[in-house]
Amino acid sequence: MLKKITIKDLKPGMFVHQILEQKGQLSVKSQGRVTSQAIADALKKKGVLTLVVDTDKAFSVSSGEPEPNKEAPVSKKVAEKAPKASLESELTRATKLHVQGKRIQKQLLSSVKKAQPFDSSIPKEFSAKLVSSVDRNPDALLCLTKIREKDDYLLEHSLNVAILLANFGRHLGMSESEVQDLSYSGFLHDLGKIQIPDEILHKPDRLTDDEMDIMKGHVKHGIDYLNETDLDKTLIRTISEHHERLDGLGYPMGTKGENISREGRMLAIADMYDALTADRVYKSGMSSQKAFSILLSDAPSRLDLPLVQQFIKCMGIYPVGSLVLLSNERLAMVIEQTDSPLAPKVKVFYSVRNAHFLEPKDIDLASEKNVKVSKAAIASDYKIDVNAFFERLVSIG
Ligand SMILES: [Fe+2]
Hints:
Blueprint: E1 2-6, E2 15-22, E3 32-33, H1 37-45, E4 48-54, H2 74-81, H3 87-113, H4 121-136, H5 138-144, H6 153-171, H7 176-188, H8 198-201, H9 209-227, H10 233-240, H11 262-277, H12 288-297, H13 305-315, E5 323-326, E6 330-336, E7 345-351, E8 356-364, E9 373-377, H14 386-396
Helix pairs in contact: 3-4, 3-5, 3-6, 3-14, 4-5, 4-6, 4-7, 5-6, 6-7, 6-11, 7-10, 9-10, 10-11, 11-12
């Protein structure tokens, strides 16, 4: 089981899964056994503040042998030891899940519109399946966040935020149930938008002050509806906070700083990132790098800086699913992060020079010396239909 701890709680016999927060610039190896108090002290000296330990890999210091963790539930242990599914096999499952997610989201929005109750077991069960897919191979659903049907923004945005939060929660070492709740809150966070008139919701130009007031009402519409359901109050709180900002200038309550829950802050980051990178009917989404710089410019005054930094770390400089232009004038989709943040594993699929699709080919840029990423790319700059590419990719897989 992955568990977040502060440096003062790090003891010999623990297995460090990941360094979460660190002062200073010294690079610290992120994984390994803490075989002595001296190692724990050295990490503290290097400025490590919080970290994630894997309790399943705890070991006896005297023998150095792994010690089974009696607290970890058996099913969870088995799940964590399961080998990572291949991207191709998980893509097939994730594609079905993606379609199912949009269908459930559509039903939910319809229930909210008609003020009818919904069976909460359906979206809850769906969120659990989504987290399971992320556990098997996080890259499959992340790739699918790039599929955008121009008229389905509302459906896809909530689904994407749920996917981003499942990854973010896992990255931070949150427990299975915490990640499921977080992802579930992402899936439900914008239900109130169905009550906003289309001409305001989809207005390409800047909203007037009056229109903005109507738009801001979506949080209350959603919460009013959810309060009538059996949804856990903690989740309702997280959802209610997705437009709150640390400086108190967010809405609807103007909640400040520490009064905004960690989950609410995480939802705010994932919500903004997806909104910035999404293609809309009237404009193309921005690159992940541009979106990251906007998130960073909103921190620490409005967004939680350590969480923004962790989110960027979780997504990677070139996030899975994003497009990159390679030095050989070919376009590729990032399909997996490697230990080299600037050299991910990619699927090459398009020749810019000849303006035609290629037979998809995987390249690990970390071990390929002759090709590197020239820059991040946006499909619309090359008039590429990413959806068509995906259909091809999934059918090949
Ligand atoms: Fe919202």
